Structure formats: structure tokens, C-alpha cells
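Much of the work behind modern protein science is quiet bookkeeping, done one molecule at a time. The protein below has been through that process, and both of its lines are reproduced in full.
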Amino acid sequence: MDIYKKSIIELSELLNKKTLSSKEMTNYFLKRINSFNAKLNAFITVDEEHAKKQALYADSLIAKKKNTLLTGIPIAHKDLFSTKNVLTTCGSKMLENYIPPFDATIVCKLNNAGMVTIGKTNMDEFAMGSSNESSYFGTVKNPWNIDKVPGGSSGGSASAVAARLTPVATGSDTGGSIRQPASFCGLTGLKPTYGSVSRYGMIAYASSLDQCGPLAKNAEDCALIYDEIKGYDHNDITSNHEVKQEKINLKISKDEAKKITIGIPKEYFSKDLDNNISDVIFQSIEVFKKLGFTFREISLPQHDLTIPAYYIIASAEASSNLSRYDGIKFGHRCNNPKNLEDLYLRTRKEGFGKEVKKRIMIGAYALSAGYYDEYYIRALKIRRLIRDNFISAFNKVDYIFAPTCPSTAFNIGEKTSNALEMYLSDIYTTPVNLAGLPAASIPVGFNDSLPVGMQIIGNYFSEEKILQIANMFQKETDWHLKIPKEFDNE
């Protein structure tokens, strides 16, 4: 039946026609996890008992015709979303035994829609990384080539969906952590407008940058998940009332496409970008031109300042957010502390990994007396310039196309000794987070048998149109249907 190949709508049809029960579908994907996860290390926790209970409940809803389109569909959650009574580690020794007493808002919303949580996916520790190599639970592998990274920090979610171990997964995007893994693994990943999805129950890295979103096979599946998780939440003061509650309509005609102008930022197609990636993207742009879209070159100045500004702001916020892990309330606690200072020092030394410690130190330094104005305040000023550049660009064009990453997936261990080179892998994604804009990465081709992704960036709260454009492209191409050979079997 090739269940693993099917979209959410196709799986929902199987459930509604009683061709398959949610219990059978859940067991099917749990079996795939048991067969393939050892090669990928995509999951930290697989709670079969809890998943089977949810599946039985979903089947009862379907039998009573009280189901939604998502009822009975399995989903995996990135391991920074709190899940009641299920281990939530954030990829860190600090939280290796933490079992939350509540669900994150997006987990709660998807549970209410009848989805079945089959597990928690591996991630860079506290979402700090671009390769999923900093996890306390080990490196995640890319299904297209297990010697390559899947991207980070949502690499476990991306690897799991790409290998078809789950139909869909949640992720978080602080500087590209949904879009970059989506690009490396040949998926569609949506980073919504900041504030359009509640962050309540999502373990914080950098609060002014973090945003939840889906990783899926295609734009249609992303739209279905986004529709369910979006909206204001009184538990999150940064969530926004302006989010439209109507379901996304993915239909767009060629006549509508002819009215849309898309900008190509010249700074994004520079020496930083692999020529082969550039060629693949421009080939995909030809498809968009045939569909009626108009293109024009634009400029996004200060692009070269994005990475330093992003890492100062993100690290500063991380140093503040992670101060709560002190061995007192919850999380790891060192053995036999001599005094309070020893408790703090040894707990944090033992509980945090190298990358997390590095970013805490950078952030604490940037916020310290004498350097606050020179680093943090200056980074905030650059952030405003970057946002203003996007606003200016959207006065000239409707949407922006850009590479997601400067290269395809790189080798495991290739960049771990060079922090700057690792950070530069986010050079095209971090501006979107600094500006708080929505963007999706879609697969547009291959280079050396590895997927290439392209970003569609829109103005605030334009998720519907972004997904319409992505869906229109995917109706004309089959890049999103490609599956890594090793995992393309029952």
C-alpha cells in the first residue's frame, strides 16, 4: 500500500474509509522507527504505549464521526516541546530525566485535533547548532547519506520525516532551524511569522527569535499543521492577535500568479553561495516564470552584518534563559555539593555541553558592563536595519526567493572545529528571524545526489500566500516526492 509515501490527506482518507485504523497506522510507523532509527538516531524517545492509547482514542472519534482531518495521523515532536508525562530532554544532559507535568500549547492543540504522538525527536542541545551534532544523545544522520548531517537544530525531525518514519513532525526555528534541515533533507519546512504560533511550553533558547513550525513532505501538509497550531494564546504574551483563524486555501490561479512580483536579492547570490546551488535555484525559477510569476532583482544591504548581529542577540538571550538551570528547581544536579556556589558551578559544568557553554559565555560577555552598548545594543540596531531593509523591499516586490543554505548537507565532523564556518551555514536564514518574517523552504532539485532547498520569504502574516506559491510549484514538479533509496521500502 506504500503507506509511508502518502500525504496527510491521503492517510486521512484511508482512516475515514476504514481501509486502515489509526491503531494499525500507528503500529506501521512504530515498526518503521524500530527498523530504521538505529541508522539515523532521529528519535530520543519513542513512547509506544502512549501512542497506542492515543490511536485507540482516535479510532473511537472516527467511528463517532467526531474526527478532524488530522485525527489518527501520527506526528513526532521536537524534544524541546513539553509533553505531559513523557520525557522532554532538549537534547541535553541537563534535562535527561525531565518529565514535564504539562503539554506545550502546540502539542495540546494537535492532541485535541486527534493526532497521535509517536515520539520525541533528537536535536542540537537547547536548539544551539546547525548540524545536530551537539546533542547529548548523539549525532543525527541524514537519510540521503548517513555520512552527512541532517541540519540543525531540528535535524531529528527532518531526518525522521525524510526517511518516512513519521508523516510529519514539529520543529523550532531560531535562526533557520526548520528551514535549513528541510533543505538538507529534501522537505518542506515552514517558519511562521514571529508570534503567530504560541511558544508556551517550548523550552526557550532565544525568546525574541524562537518560532514553532512544521516539517513535512509538502506545502499541503505544512498548511494543515499550521492551521491547527496558529493563533493567539493567553499563556504566551508574545503571541499575536492578528493571526487569521480561517483555514488556509492553497488554490491560486495562473492569473493571480501573473500579478505577483518576486524579488531576487543580489546579496544572496554572491561568492558565499555554491555555484551548483545557484544553478539549481535558477532552474526552479524558470518553472515559476512559466507559471506566470514576474521576477526582479532587489537589494538587501547589511546582509553581511546578519551573522554577527544574530549570534550576539541569540547568545545574550540564551545566557539569560539558561540561567534557570542551576540544580535547584529541576534538571541535573551535581552530587554532594560543598556549598551553593559549588552546586551552581558543577551542575552547569556537568549538565551543559560545549556549544551551549560557548554561547552562554558569549552572551554573558555581550551583556556585561562596559560591553553592553558596544555589542548588544549595536546588534539590536543592526537588527532594526535588517527589518527595515525587508520592509523597503516589500514595497517593491510581493515575495522574495532566496537560497536556504550556501551548500548542500556537509560531512559529519566537517565543521565542528570551525565555529565561524558552522555559523555561516545560517547566513541566508537568520535575517528572516531577526526581522520576524515568515518563510518556507521547499525542495527544488539535487546537487551530487543531495537535496537543494529554496526559501520563499513573505511579509508579516503572509503564510497562506507563501504556501500557495510553494504548492503551485509542487503541483508542477516532483522534487518533494523523492525518498532516500535506503528508506524507500515497506
